[in-house]
């Protein structure tokens, strides 16, 4: 399969996974089951037809409204479907599998990206980084680290310790700003990006978080002392490094030797 075709195929898989991630983000924060009831309109309860379950296409065909009652379907549905599709396509483009090991790596990285998408949504919408997401995610991350073998697996585990350790330090020094969910998430990001990737992920997280916090403060949409959830920024850092970590590390060393 050509690389472009693979990226398109994997992107379509990603859109379907994004559709599932929407269900996860809808149901887990309220303690609901993922399996039942089948997908339905939250307003009128009408069960969705198979033709209404096609990622991205259904949303656009229905113009973002329920077929029965006309209630708007949150735009997040579309953003998560299209966004996960794009992330999967990028992952296939960046990590074209040449072997069984390559396929395992692409599947694992895609799962990690999916976790980061769910965490971003639940943290923005509910201020929650759920244990029901993070514990399985940490389990998959640990399996991924072990599969990497020696010594790369050890760098992954060390990355997890560094990620969690940095947030633990902040939790101890600046009480109130962050939570244990952030610690588990940073540990997960470290586990899947490893050393030195986790350092770049944390850098992206804190810089992007600072920029957004500053912009919200300047535009008067938030007051000084309001806290911004860290999860989406940690997820952004993890996503950037999962997809472009090697580029970042090479650019950093080129810059370091040049300076
Ligand atoms: Zn409806």
Oligomer: single chain
Q: Tell me the fraction of residues in β-strands, as a range.
A: under 5%
Mean pLDDT, rounded to whole units? Answer: 94
Structural category is mainly alpha
Span between termini = 42 Å
Description:
The chain is mainly alpha-helical and 259 residues long. It has two domains: 1-96, no CATH class; 99-259, no CATH class. Helices cover 71% and strands 0% of the residues. It has eight helices and no strands. Helix 1 runs antiparallel to helix 3 (75-94). The protein binds zinc ion (ZN).
Give me the secondary-structure topology.
Layout: H1 3-27, H2 57-61, H3 75-94, H4 100-126, H5 131-147, H6 152-173, H7 180-218, H8 231-258
Bound molecules: zinc ion.
Zinc ion binds at residues 41, 43-44, 46, 66, 68-69, 71.
Which features would summarize this protein structure in a list?
259 residues; mainly alpha; 2 domains; 8 helices; globular; binds zinc ion
Task: Briefly say what this structure is.
The chain is mainly α and 259 residues long.
């Amino acid at each position: 399969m050509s690389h472009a075709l693979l990226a398109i195929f994997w992107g379509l898989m990603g859109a379907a996974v994004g559709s599932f991630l929407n269900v996860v983000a809808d149901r887990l924060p309220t303690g609901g089951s993922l399996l039942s009831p089948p997908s339905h309109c939250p307003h009128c309860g009408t069960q969705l037809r198979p033709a209404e379950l096609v990622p991205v296409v259904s949303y656009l065909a229905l113009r973002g409204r329920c077929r029965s009652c006309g209630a708007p379907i949150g735009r997040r549905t579309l953003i998560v479907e299209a966004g996960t599709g794009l992330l999967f396509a990028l992952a296939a483009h960046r990590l074209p599998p040449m072997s069984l090991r390559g396929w395992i790596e692409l599947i694992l990285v895609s799962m990690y990206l999916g976790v980061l998408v769910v965490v971003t949504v639940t943290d923005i919408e509910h201020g929650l980084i759920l244990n029901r997401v993070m514990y399985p995610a940490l389990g998959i991350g640990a399996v991924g680290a072990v599969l990497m073998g020696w010594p790369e697996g050890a760098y992954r585990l060390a990355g997890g310790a560094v990620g969690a350790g940095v947030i633990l330090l902040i939790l101890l020094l600046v009480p109130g700003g962050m939570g244990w969910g952030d610690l588990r998430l940073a540990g997960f990001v470290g586990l899947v990006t490893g050393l030195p990737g986790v350092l770049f992920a944390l850098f992206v997280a804190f810089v992007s978080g600072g920029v957004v916090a500053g912009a919200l403060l300047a535009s008067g949409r938030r007051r000084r002392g309001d806290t911004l959830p860290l999860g989406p920024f940690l997820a952004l850092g993890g996503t950037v490094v999962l997809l472009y970590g090697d580029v970042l590390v090479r650019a950093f060393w080129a810059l370091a030797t040049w300076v």
